[in-house]
Amino acid sequence: MRRWPDRLLVLSTRGAAVAAASVLALVLGIVLVGAMPALARGGAGFLTGANWSPTTGSFGAWAMIAGSLATAGLALAIALPIGFGCGLASGWILTGAAASSLRALIMVLAGIPSVVLGLWGLTTLVPLIARWHAPGTSLLAAGLVLALMLVPTIALIVDATLRTVPAEQRVAAAALALGRWSTLRAIAGRACRDSLATGGVLAVARALGETMAVLLVAGNVAALPDGLFSPVRTLTGAMALEMAYATGEHRAALFVLAGIAVALVALVLVLLRASGLRPALGAAHA
Amino acid sequence: MRKLDLMLRDQALLGVALVSTLALIGASTWLVIDLLVTAWPRLGWHLLWQAPARAGRAGGLSSILVATGAIVAIGLLLAAPLGIAAAVALSEARSRWADVVRTSLDLLAGAPSIVLGLVGLLLFGDLLGLGYSLATGGLTLALMVLPLVIRFAEVGIRSAPAEQRAAAAALALSRWTTLRRIVLPAALPSLAAAITLSIGRALAETAALVFTAGGSDRMPTSWADPGRTLAVHIYDVALNVAGGDASAAAAAVVLLAILLVVQVALIVCLRCGRSR
What we know:
The complex is a heterodimer. Chain A has helices spanning 4-41, 45-48, 62-93, 96-110, 114-132, 139-162, 167-175, 180-209, 212-217, 235-242, 248-274, and strands spanning 52-53, 58-59. Chain A is mostly helical. In chain A, strands 1-2 form a two-stranded antiparallel ribbon. Chain A is globular and about 70 Å long. Chain B is mainly alpha-helical. Chain B has a two-stranded antiparallel sheet. In chain B, helix 1 (2-39) crosses helix 11, helix 3 packs antiparallel against helix 8 and helix 4 packs across helix 6 (134-158). Chains A and B meet through helix 1, helix 3, helix 4, helix 5 and helix 6 of A and helix 1, helix 3, helix 4, helix 5 and helix 6 of B.
Protein backbone atom coordinates (compact mmCIF):
# COMPACT_ATOMS: atom_id res chain seq x y z
CA MET A 1 0.00 0.00 0.00
CA ARG A 2 3.08 2.15 0.60
CA ARG A 3 3.48 2.30 -3.16
CA TRP A 4 0.49 4.41 -4.04
CA PRO A 5 2.52 7.64 -4.46
CA ASP A 6 4.69 5.77 -6.93
CA ARG A 7 1.77 4.62 -8.95
CA LEU A 8 0.44 8.17 -8.98
CA LEU A 9 3.85 9.44 -10.07
CA VAL A 10 4.09 7.00 -12.97
CA LEU A 11 0.53 7.70 -14.03
CA SER A 12 0.86 11.47 -13.89
CA THR A 13 4.20 11.69 -15.69
CA ARG A 14 3.05 9.29 -18.40
CA GLY A 15 -0.13 11.30 -18.64
CA ALA A 16 1.99 14.42 -19.17
CA ALA A 17 3.99 12.68 -21.91
CA VAL A 18 0.85 11.55 -23.72
CA ALA A 19 -0.67 15.02 -23.34
CA ALA A 20 2.49 16.56 -24.82
CA ALA A 21 2.44 14.11 -27.72
CA SER A 22 -1.22 14.78 -28.44
CA VAL A 23 -0.45 18.49 -28.93
CA LEU A 24 0.66 17.58 -32.48
CA ALA A 25 -2.68 15.88 -33.13
CA LEU A 26 -4.43 18.92 -31.69
CA VAL A 27 -2.48 21.27 -33.96
CA LEU A 28 -3.19 19.17 -37.05
CA GLY A 29 -6.83 18.85 -36.05
CA ILE A 30 -7.25 22.60 -35.64
CA VAL A 31 -5.55 23.25 -38.99
CA LEU A 32 -7.97 20.81 -40.59
CA VAL A 33 -10.96 22.43 -38.88
CA GLY A 34 -9.80 25.84 -40.07
CA ALA A 35 -9.24 24.61 -43.61
CA MET A 36 -12.52 22.70 -43.91
CA PRO A 37 -14.66 25.42 -45.54
CA ALA A 38 -12.10 25.82 -48.32
CA LEU A 39 -11.43 22.11 -48.77
CA ALA A 40 -15.14 21.43 -49.03
CA ARG A 41 -15.40 23.82 -51.96
CA GLY A 42 -12.72 22.36 -54.22
CA GLY A 43 -9.55 20.85 -52.88
CA ALA A 44 -7.17 20.08 -55.70
CA GLY A 45 -7.04 23.59 -57.13
CA PHE A 46 -4.79 24.62 -54.29
CA LEU A 47 -1.86 22.54 -55.45
CA THR A 48 -2.11 23.14 -59.18
CA GLY A 49 -3.38 26.67 -59.65
CA ALA A 50 -0.87 29.54 -59.70
CA ASN A 51 -3.43 32.30 -59.44
CA TRP A 52 -3.88 33.55 -55.89
CA SER A 53 -6.48 36.30 -55.80
CA PRO A 54 -8.67 36.17 -52.72
CA THR A 55 -10.99 38.92 -53.99
CA THR A 56 -12.15 36.75 -56.90
CA GLY A 57 -12.13 33.57 -54.84
CA SER A 58 -9.25 32.00 -56.74
CA PHE A 59 -6.84 30.19 -54.42
CA GLY A 60 -4.00 28.59 -56.36
CA ALA A 61 -1.10 28.13 -53.97
CA TRP A 62 1.50 27.03 -56.50
CA ALA A 63 3.19 30.45 -56.71
CA MET A 64 3.67 30.47 -52.94
CA ILE A 65 4.86 26.87 -52.82
CA ALA A 66 7.40 27.77 -55.51
CA GLY A 67 8.33 30.89 -53.56
CA SER A 68 8.97 28.88 -50.40
CA LEU A 69 11.01 26.25 -52.24
CA ALA A 70 13.01 28.84 -54.19
CA THR A 71 13.98 30.91 -51.13
CA ALA A 72 14.85 27.78 -49.13
CA GLY A 73 16.88 26.34 -52.01
CA LEU A 74 18.78 29.57 -52.67
CA ALA A 75 19.51 30.04 -48.96
CA LEU A 76 20.78 26.46 -48.71
CA ALA A 77 23.03 26.89 -51.76
CA ILE A 78 24.64 29.92 -50.11
CA ALA A 79 24.72 28.63 -46.54
CA LEU A 80 25.90 25.05 -47.08
CA PRO A 81 29.48 25.80 -48.25
CA ILE A 82 29.94 28.70 -45.84
CA GLY A 83 28.49 26.76 -42.92
CA PHE A 84 30.71 23.81 -43.76
CA GLY A 85 33.77 26.09 -43.92
CA CYS A 86 33.00 27.62 -40.54
CA GLY A 87 32.36 24.24 -38.93
CA LEU A 88 35.58 22.94 -40.47
CA ALA A 89 37.49 25.91 -39.05
CA SER A 90 36.09 25.65 -35.51
CA GLY A 91 35.89 21.87 -35.26
CA TRP A 92 38.93 20.68 -37.21
CA ILE A 93 41.51 23.26 -38.22
CA LEU A 94 41.61 25.63 -35.27
CA THR A 95 42.43 24.45 -31.75
CA GLY A 96 42.27 25.81 -28.23
CA ALA A 97 41.08 29.34 -27.59
CA ALA A 98 40.76 30.25 -31.28
CA ALA A 99 38.39 27.33 -31.86
CA SER A 100 36.28 28.02 -28.80
CA SER A 101 35.96 31.73 -29.52
CA LEU A 102 34.88 31.04 -33.11
CA ARG A 103 32.39 28.51 -31.76
CA ALA A 104 31.10 31.08 -29.26
CA LEU A 105 30.65 33.61 -32.09
CA ILE A 106 28.70 31.08 -34.15
CA MET A 107 26.47 30.32 -31.17
CA VAL A 108 25.81 34.01 -30.56
CA LEU A 109 24.90 34.42 -34.22
CA ALA A 110 22.62 31.39 -34.00
CA GLY A 111 20.79 33.12 -31.16
CA ILE A 112 19.98 36.34 -33.05
CA PRO A 113 16.21 36.52 -33.53
CA SER A 114 15.16 36.17 -37.14
CA VAL A 115 13.16 39.39 -36.98
CA VAL A 116 16.39 41.28 -36.21
CA LEU A 117 18.08 39.71 -39.24
CA GLY A 118 15.04 40.69 -41.29
CA LEU A 119 15.22 44.27 -40.02
CA TRP A 120 18.88 44.46 -40.97
CA GLY A 121 18.11 42.98 -44.38
CA LEU A 122 15.38 45.56 -44.91
CA THR A 123 17.43 48.59 -43.88
CA THR A 124 20.81 47.57 -45.34
CA LEU A 125 20.66 44.71 -47.81
CA VAL A 126 17.54 45.73 -49.72
CA PRO A 127 18.78 49.27 -50.54
CA LEU A 128 22.10 47.77 -51.70
CA ILE A 129 20.35 45.34 -54.03
CA ALA A 130 17.99 48.08 -55.21
CA ARG A 131 20.97 50.13 -56.40
CA TRP A 132 21.90 47.22 -58.60
CA HIS A 133 18.43 46.14 -59.65
CA ALA A 134 15.20 47.77 -58.36
CA PRO A 135 13.13 47.28 -56.24
CA GLY A 136 15.53 45.38 -54.01
CA THR A 137 12.96 43.35 -52.10
CA SER A 138 13.49 40.09 -53.91
CA LEU A 139 14.22 36.39 -53.93
CA LEU A 140 17.91 37.31 -53.64
CA ALA A 141 17.41 39.42 -50.50
CA ALA A 142 15.29 36.69 -48.91
CA GLY A 143 17.88 34.04 -49.78
CA LEU A 144 20.72 36.10 -48.29
CA VAL A 145 18.91 36.89 -45.04
CA LEU A 146 17.84 33.25 -44.68
CA ALA A 147 21.39 32.09 -45.43
CA LEU A 148 22.70 34.27 -42.60
CA MET A 149 20.24 32.45 -40.38
CA LEU A 150 21.20 28.97 -41.63
CA VAL A 151 25.01 29.28 -41.60
CA PRO A 152 25.28 28.96 -37.79
CA THR A 153 22.88 26.00 -37.75
CA ILE A 154 24.93 24.10 -40.33
CA ALA A 155 28.28 25.18 -38.84
CA LEU A 156 27.35 23.97 -35.36
CA ILE A 157 26.31 20.54 -36.67
CA VAL A 158 29.49 20.15 -38.74
CA ASP A 159 31.58 21.33 -35.80
CA ALA A 160 29.92 18.93 -33.34
CA THR A 161 30.28 15.98 -35.73
CA LEU A 162 33.93 16.65 -36.57
CA ARG A 163 34.81 16.93 -32.90
CA THR A 164 33.63 13.36 -32.32
CA VAL A 165 36.51 12.02 -34.45
CA PRO A 166 38.99 10.46 -31.98
CA ALA A 167 42.20 12.45 -31.49
CA GLU A 168 44.34 9.28 -31.83
CA GLN A 169 43.24 8.92 -35.43
CA ARG A 170 44.44 12.43 -36.19
CA VAL A 171 47.74 11.70 -34.48
CA ALA A 172 48.08 8.53 -36.54
CA ALA A 173 47.34 10.47 -39.72
CA ALA A 174 49.97 13.05 -38.77
CA ALA A 175 52.46 10.23 -38.12
CA LEU A 176 51.82 9.00 -41.66
CA ALA A 177 52.57 12.54 -42.87
CA LEU A 178 49.16 12.81 -44.52
CA GLY A 179 48.18 16.28 -45.68
CA ARG A 180 45.09 18.11 -44.47
CA TRP A 181 42.95 16.94 -47.35
CA SER A 182 43.99 13.30 -47.11
CA THR A 183 43.57 13.29 -43.33
CA LEU A 184 40.10 14.76 -43.50
CA ARG A 185 39.09 12.36 -46.25
CA ALA A 186 40.54 9.31 -44.60
CA ILE A 187 39.27 9.68 -41.07
CA ALA A 188 36.42 12.19 -41.25
CA GLY A 189 34.97 11.67 -44.72
CA ARG A 190 31.91 10.00 -43.35
CA ALA A 191 31.49 12.57 -40.58
CA CYS A 192 31.62 15.37 -43.17
CA ARG A 193 29.08 13.72 -45.43
CA ASP A 194 26.67 12.90 -42.61
CA SER A 195 26.88 16.30 -40.99
CA LEU A 196 26.35 18.07 -44.31
CA ALA A 197 23.30 15.93 -45.03
CA THR A 198 21.85 16.38 -41.55
CA GLY A 199 22.67 20.07 -41.39
CA GLY A 200 21.30 20.66 -44.87
CA VAL A 201 18.03 18.91 -44.19
CA LEU A 202 17.46 20.64 -40.86
CA ALA A 203 18.36 23.97 -42.47
CA VAL A 204 15.78 23.43 -45.21
CA ALA A 205 13.14 22.56 -42.61
CA ARG A 206 14.00 25.74 -40.77
CA ALA A 207 14.03 27.84 -43.93
CA LEU A 208 10.60 26.58 -44.97
CA GLY A 209 9.19 27.48 -41.57
CA GLU A 210 10.74 30.93 -41.28
CA THR A 211 8.25 33.75 -41.63
CA MET A 212 9.14 37.25 -40.53
CA ALA A 213 12.74 37.60 -41.70
CA VAL A 214 11.68 36.57 -45.20
CA LEU A 215 8.48 38.57 -45.16
CA LEU A 216 10.36 41.80 -44.44
CA VAL A 217 12.67 41.51 -47.46
CA ALA A 218 10.97 39.28 -50.05
CA GLY A 219 8.58 41.78 -51.66
CA ASN A 220 5.64 39.40 -51.25
CA VAL A 221 4.16 39.37 -54.76
CA ALA A 222 2.09 36.22 -55.20
CA ALA A 223 3.43 35.27 -58.62
CA LEU A 224 5.88 32.66 -59.86
CA PRO A 225 9.40 34.09 -59.45
CA ASP A 226 11.24 34.47 -62.78
CA GLY A 227 14.68 35.43 -61.54
CA LEU A 228 16.84 36.37 -58.58
CA PHE A 229 15.54 39.94 -58.54
CA SER A 230 11.84 39.21 -58.73
CA PRO A 231 9.80 39.60 -55.54
CA VAL A 232 8.45 36.36 -54.06
CA ARG A 233 5.82 35.42 -51.55
CA THR A 234 6.29 32.37 -49.36
CA LEU A 235 3.58 30.15 -47.85
CA THR A 236 4.40 31.41 -44.36
CA GLY A 237 4.59 35.01 -45.57
CA ALA A 238 1.12 34.78 -47.10
CA MET A 239 -0.32 33.52 -43.82
CA ALA A 240 1.33 36.31 -41.83
CA LEU A 241 0.30 39.06 -44.26
CA GLU A 242 -3.28 38.09 -44.95
CA MET A 243 -4.51 36.61 -41.69
CA ALA A 244 -4.93 40.11 -40.30
CA TYR A 245 -7.88 40.83 -42.57
CA ALA A 246 -8.92 37.49 -44.07
CA THR A 247 -12.46 36.27 -43.49
CA GLY A 248 -14.63 33.39 -44.64
CA GLU A 249 -13.26 31.27 -47.44
CA HIS A 250 -10.09 33.37 -47.69
CA ARG A 251 -9.29 32.62 -44.07
CA ALA A 252 -9.95 28.93 -44.63
CA ALA A 253 -7.59 29.05 -47.63
CA LEU A 254 -4.85 30.36 -45.35
CA PHE A 255 -5.35 27.33 -43.12
CA VAL A 256 -4.87 25.18 -46.23
CA LEU A 257 -1.54 26.96 -46.75
CA ALA A 258 -0.71 26.15 -43.12
CA GLY A 259 -1.40 22.48 -43.84
CA ILE A 260 0.80 22.56 -46.94
CA ALA A 261 3.65 24.21 -45.00
CA VAL A 262 3.43 21.62 -42.20
CA ALA A 263 3.36 18.81 -44.78
CA LEU A 264 6.47 20.16 -46.55
CA VAL A 265 8.46 20.41 -43.32
CA ALA A 266 7.24 17.01 -42.09
CA LEU A 267 8.23 15.45 -45.43
CA VAL A 268 11.75 16.86 -45.10
CA LEU A 269 12.09 15.61 -41.50
CA VAL A 270 10.70 12.17 -42.36
CA LEU A 271 13.23 11.90 -45.20
CA LEU A 272 15.99 12.66 -42.70
CA ARG A 273 14.67 9.99 -40.33
CA ALA A 274 14.35 7.46 -43.16
CA SER A 275 17.92 8.08 -44.30
CA GLY A 276 19.07 6.76 -40.93
CA LEU A 277 21.03 9.89 -39.95
CA ARG A 278 20.66 10.82 -36.31
CA PRO A 279 20.87 14.57 -35.87
CA ALA A 280 23.00 15.75 -32.97
CA LEU A 281 20.72 16.44 -30.05
CA GLY A 282 18.95 19.73 -30.12
CA ALA A 283 20.22 20.49 -33.57
CA ALA A 284 16.67 20.81 -34.81
CA HIS A 285 16.19 23.65 -32.40
CA ALA A 286 19.56 25.32 -32.76
CA MET B 1 51.82 15.53 -60.45
CA ARG B 2 49.64 13.74 -57.94
CA LYS B 3 51.56 15.27 -55.07
CA LEU B 4 50.96 18.74 -56.45
CA ASP B 5 47.29 17.95 -56.78
CA LEU B 6 47.09 16.93 -53.13
CA MET B 7 48.89 20.08 -52.03
CA LEU B 8 46.42 22.15 -53.99
CA ARG B 9 43.57 20.37 -52.26
CA ASP B 10 45.14 21.06 -48.87
CA GLN B 11 45.29 24.73 -49.76
CA ALA B 12 41.70 24.71 -51.04
CA LEU B 13 40.50 23.19 -47.78
CA LEU B 14 42.23 25.92 -45.78
CA GLY B 15 40.89 28.48 -48.22
CA VAL B 16 37.26 27.38 -47.80
CA ALA B 17 37.57 27.46 -44.01
CA LEU B 18 39.31 30.84 -44.02
CA VAL B 19 36.95 32.55 -46.46
CA SER B 20 33.84 31.20 -44.72
CA THR B 21 35.06 32.24 -41.29
CA LEU B 22 35.97 35.72 -42.52
CA ALA B 23 32.58 36.01 -44.23
CA LEU B 24 30.81 35.04 -41.02
CA ILE B 25 32.84 37.40 -38.86
CA GLY B 26 32.46 40.17 -41.44
CA ALA B 27 28.69 39.78 -41.76
CA SER B 28 28.11 39.67 -38.01
CA THR B 29 30.32 42.71 -37.38
CA TRP B 30 28.56 44.59 -40.17
CA LEU B 31 25.16 43.69 -38.73
CA VAL B 32 25.97 44.74 -35.18
CA ILE B 33 27.66 48.01 -36.14
CA ASP B 34 24.87 48.83 -38.57
CA LEU B 35 22.19 48.21 -35.94
CA LEU B 36 24.01 50.30 -33.35
CA VAL B 37 24.55 53.19 -35.77
CA THR B 38 20.91 53.16 -36.89
CA ALA B 39 19.67 52.88 -33.31
CA TRP B 40 22.06 55.47 -31.87
CA PRO B 41 19.73 58.52 -31.89
CA ARG B 42 17.05 56.54 -30.04
CA LEU B 43 19.18 54.67 -27.52
CA GLY B 44 19.05 55.58 -23.85
CA TRP B 45 17.80 54.40 -20.46
CA HIS B 46 14.47 56.14 -21.11
CA LEU B 47 13.62 53.14 -23.34
CA LEU B 48 13.13 51.07 -20.21
CA TRP B 49 10.63 53.25 -18.36
CA GLN B 50 8.87 55.49 -20.90
CA ALA B 51 5.74 54.41 -22.76
CA PRO B 52 5.94 54.26 -26.55
CA ALA B 53 4.56 57.28 -28.40
CA ARG B 54 3.57 58.01 -32.01
CA ALA B 55 3.32 54.30 -32.99
CA GLY B 56 6.82 53.65 -31.66
CA ARG B 57 8.63 56.55 -33.36
CA ALA B 58 9.19 58.21 -29.98
CA GLY B 59 9.11 57.35 -26.30
CA GLY B 60 10.29 54.12 -24.79
CA LEU B 61 9.34 50.47 -24.58
CA SER B 62 7.94 50.12 -21.06
CA SER B 63 4.54 48.63 -21.96
CA ILE B 64 6.18 46.35 -24.51
CA LEU B 65 8.69 45.05 -21.97
CA VAL B 66 5.87 44.32 -19.52
CA ALA B 67 3.86 42.48 -22.17
CA THR B 68 6.95 40.52 -23.24
CA GLY B 69 7.62 39.45 -19.66
CA ALA B 70 4.00 38.46 -19.07
CA ILE B 71 3.61 36.44 -22.29
CA VAL B 72 6.91 34.59 -21.82
CA ALA B 73 6.06 33.93 -18.16
CA ILE B 74 2.63 32.49 -19.01
CA GLY B 75 4.13 30.31 -21.74
CA LEU B 76 6.93 28.95 -19.56
CA LEU B 77 4.75 28.46 -16.45
CA LEU B 78 2.54 26.20 -18.55
CA ALA B 79 5.19 24.43 -20.61
CA ALA B 80 7.87 23.85 -17.96
CA PRO B 81 5.93 21.69 -15.43
CA LEU B 82 4.18 19.68 -18.15
CA GLY B 83 7.42 19.34 -20.11
CA ILE B 84 9.52 18.23 -17.15
CA ALA B 85 6.88 15.70 -16.06
CA ALA B 86 6.77 14.31 -19.60
CA ALA B 87 10.58 14.18 -19.68
CA VAL B 88 10.61 12.17 -16.44
CA ALA B 89 8.32 9.59 -18.05
CA LEU B 90 10.29 9.52 -21.32
CA SER B 91 13.65 9.18 -19.59
CA GLU B 92 12.58 5.86 -18.08
CA ALA B 93 10.71 4.50 -21.07
CA ARG B 94 12.30 2.39 -23.76
CA SER B 95 9.15 1.12 -25.35
CA ARG B 96 7.30 1.86 -28.55
CA TRP B 97 4.95 4.40 -27.10
CA ALA B 98 7.92 6.54 -26.04
CA ASP B 99 9.18 6.52 -29.65
CA VAL B 100 5.77 7.61 -30.86
CA VAL B 101 5.78 10.44 -28.30
CA ARG B 102 9.28 11.54 -29.34
CA THR B 103 8.47 11.46 -33.05
CA SER B 104 5.36 13.53 -32.60
CA LEU B 105 7.31 16.03 -30.48
CA ASP B 106 10.00 16.28 -33.19
CA LEU B 107 7.34 17.00 -35.77
CA LEU B 108 5.73 19.59 -33.48
CA ALA B 109 9.15 21.22 -33.03
CA GLY B 110 9.47 21.40 -36.81
CA ALA B 111 6.07 22.97 -37.41
CA PRO B 112 6.42 26.55 -38.69
CA SER B 113 5.71 28.95 -35.84
CA ILE B 114 3.23 30.95 -37.94
CA VAL B 115 1.13 27.77 -38.18
CA LEU B 116 1.11 27.55 -34.38
CA GLY B 117 0.06 31.19 -34.44
CA LEU B 118 -2.95 30.41 -36.64
CA VAL B 119 -3.83 27.41 -34.45
CA GLY B 120 -3.56 29.57 -31.33
CA LEU B 121 -5.81 32.19 -32.91
CA LEU B 122 -8.51 29.66 -33.77
CA LEU B 123 -8.23 27.47 -30.66
CA PHE B 124 -7.53 29.90 -27.81
CA GLY B 125 -8.69 33.17 -29.38
CA ASP B 126 -11.92 32.02 -31.04
CA LEU B 127 -12.98 28.67 -29.59
CA LEU B 128 -11.97 29.40 -25.98
CA GLY B 129 -12.99 33.03 -26.38
CA LEU B 130 -9.77 34.56 -25.10
CA GLY B 131 -9.49 36.90 -28.09
CA TYR B 132 -6.27 38.80 -28.71
CA SER B 133 -4.68 38.67 -25.28
CA LEU B 134 -1.57 37.95 -23.26
CA ALA B 135 -3.20 34.64 -22.31
CA THR B 136 -3.72 33.57 -25.94
CA GLY B 137 -0.15 34.55 -26.77
CA GLY B 138 1.25 32.76 -23.72
CA LEU B 139 -0.72 29.57 -24.46
CA THR B 140 0.50 29.59 -28.06
CA LEU B 141 4.09 30.06 -26.90
CA ALA B 142 3.63 27.12 -24.53
CA LEU B 143 2.74 24.90 -27.52
CA MET B 144 5.85 26.14 -29.28
CA VAL B 145 8.43 25.63 -26.53
CA LEU B 146 7.00 22.38 -25.14
CA PRO B 147 9.06 20.08 -27.43
CA LEU B 148 12.17 22.11 -26.65
CA VAL B 149 11.70 21.83 -22.86
CA ILE B 150 11.06 18.08 -23.10
CA ARG B 151 14.02 17.37 -25.39
CA PHE B 152 16.56 19.10 -23.17
CA ALA B 153 15.02 18.10 -19.84
CA GLU B 154 15.08 14.46 -20.92
CA VAL B 155 18.82 14.61 -21.61
CA GLY B 156 19.41 16.22 -18.23
CA ILE B 157 17.37 13.60 -16.40
CA ARG B 158 19.09 10.75 -18.24
CA SER B 159 22.46 12.15 -17.19
CA ALA B 160 21.76 11.30 -13.52
CA PRO B 161 24.45 8.72 -12.65
CA ALA B 162 23.25 5.18 -13.35
CA GLU B 163 25.07 3.78 -10.29
CA GLN B 164 23.11 6.05 -7.99
CA ARG B 165 19.87 4.97 -9.59
CA ALA B 166 20.89 1.34 -9.27
CA ALA B 167 21.86 1.90 -5.63
CA ALA B 168 18.50 3.52 -4.98
CA ALA B 169 16.76 0.56 -6.55
CA ALA B 170 18.89 -1.85 -4.47
CA LEU B 171 17.80 -0.01 -1.31
CA ALA B 172 14.21 -0.46 -2.44
CA LEU B 173 13.66 3.28 -2.37
CA SER B 174 10.37 4.29 -3.87
CA ARG B 175 10.32 5.87 -7.33
CA TRP B 176 9.12 9.06 -5.75
CA THR B 177 12.07 9.24 -3.33
CA THR B 178 14.54 8.34 -6.09
CA LEU B 179 13.15 11.08 -8.28
CA ARG B 180 13.13 13.73 -5.57
CA ARG B 181 16.40 12.91 -3.82
CA ILE B 182 18.61 11.60 -6.62
CA VAL B 183 17.40 12.26 -10.15
CA LEU B 184 16.05 15.80 -9.88
CA PRO B 185 18.99 17.24 -7.89
CA ALA B 186 21.43 15.80 -10.43
CA ALA B 187 19.36 17.10 -13.32
CA LEU B 188 18.72 20.55 -11.84
CA PRO B 189 21.34 22.47 -13.90
CA SER B 190 20.12 20.83 -17.12
CA LEU B 191 16.52 21.62 -16.26
CA ALA B 192 17.50 25.22 -15.63
CA ALA B 193 19.33 25.22 -18.97
CA ALA B 194 16.27 23.77 -20.73
CA ILE B 195 14.08 26.54 -19.32
CA THR B 196 16.59 29.30 -20.08
CA LEU B 197 16.93 28.06 -23.64
CA SER B 198 13.14 28.10 -24.00
CA ILE B 199 12.98 31.65 -22.66
CA GLY B 200 15.52 32.71 -25.30
CA ARG B 201 13.48 31.01 -27.98
CA ALA B 202 10.26 32.59 -26.75
CA LEU B 203 11.83 36.07 -26.68
CA ALA B 204 12.93 35.69 -30.30
CA GLU B 205 9.51 34.59 -31.54
CA THR B 206 7.42 36.84 -33.74
CA ALA B 207 5.23 34.82 -36.07
CA ALA B 208 3.38 32.84 -33.40
CA LEU B 209 2.41 36.02 -31.53
CA VAL B 210 1.27 38.48 -34.19
CA PHE B 211 -2.23 36.99 -34.39
CA THR B 212 -2.56 35.73 -30.85
CA ALA B 213 -1.29 38.38 -28.44
CA GLY B 214 -2.53 41.25 -30.59
CA GLY B 215 -0.65 44.36 -31.59
CA SER B 216 -1.53 46.91 -28.95
CA ASP B 217 1.35 48.93 -27.55
CA ARG B 218 -0.61 50.14 -24.51
CA MET B 219 0.31 48.98 -21.02
CA PRO B 220 -1.52 45.69 -20.33
CA THR B 221 -3.31 45.54 -16.99
CA SER B 222 -4.48 41.91 -17.00
CA TRP B 223 -3.92 38.65 -18.80
CA ALA B 224 -7.00 39.35 -20.90
CA ASP B 225 -5.49 42.52 -22.39
CA PRO B 226 -3.70 42.47 -25.75
CA GLY B 227 -0.01 43.29 -25.85
CA ARG B 228 2.99 42.99 -28.11
CA THR B 229 6.38 41.52 -27.37
CA LEU B 230 9.66 43.21 -28.31
CA ALA B 231 10.06 40.99 -31.37
CA VAL B 232 6.55 41.78 -32.60
CA HIS B 233 7.22 45.47 -31.95
CA ILE B 234 10.38 45.37 -34.10
CA TYR B 235 8.46 43.68 -36.90
CA ASP B 236 5.54 46.08 -36.74
CA VAL B 237 7.65 49.24 -36.60
CA ALA B 238 9.97 48.06 -39.39
CA LEU B 239 7.11 47.10 -41.70
CA ASN B 240 4.28 49.52 -40.92
CA VAL B 241 5.75 52.72 -39.48
CA ALA B 242 7.35 55.15 -41.93
CA GLY B 243 10.52 56.63 -40.47
CA GLY B 244 10.61 53.95 -37.80
CA ASP B 245 13.98 52.45 -38.67
CA ALA B 246 15.84 54.00 -35.74
CA SER B 247 13.13 52.93 -33.29
CA ALA B 248 13.05 49.39 -34.67
CA ALA B 249 16.83 49.19 -34.45
CA ALA B 250 16.77 50.52 -30.87
CA ALA B 251 14.22 47.87 -29.90
CA ALA B 252 16.43 45.28 -31.61
CA VAL B 253 19.41 46.41 -29.54
CA VAL B 254 17.36 46.08 -26.34
CA LEU B 255 16.19 42.59 -27.42
CA LEU B 256 19.75 41.52 -28.21
CA ALA B 257 20.92 42.81 -24.81
CA ILE B 258 18.22 40.78 -23.03
CA LEU B 259 19.09 37.69 -25.08
CA LEU B 260 22.76 38.15 -24.19
CA VAL B 261 21.84 38.05 -20.49
CA VAL B 262 19.79 34.89 -21.12
CA GLN B 263 22.68 33.30 -23.00
CA VAL B 264 25.12 34.07 -20.18
CA ALA B 265 22.65 32.51 -17.74
CA LEU B 266 22.51 29.44 -19.99
CA ILE B 267 26.29 29.11 -20.02
CA VAL B 268 26.37 29.42 -16.22
CA CYS B 269 23.71 26.67 -15.95
CA LEU B 270 25.68 24.38 -18.23
CA ARG B 271 28.96 25.06 -16.39
CA CYS B 272 27.28 24.17 -13.07
CA GLY B 273 26.06 20.96 -14.65
CA ARG B 274 29.50 20.00 -15.89
CA SER B 275 31.39 20.74 -12.69
CA ARG B 276 29.30 18.27 -10.70
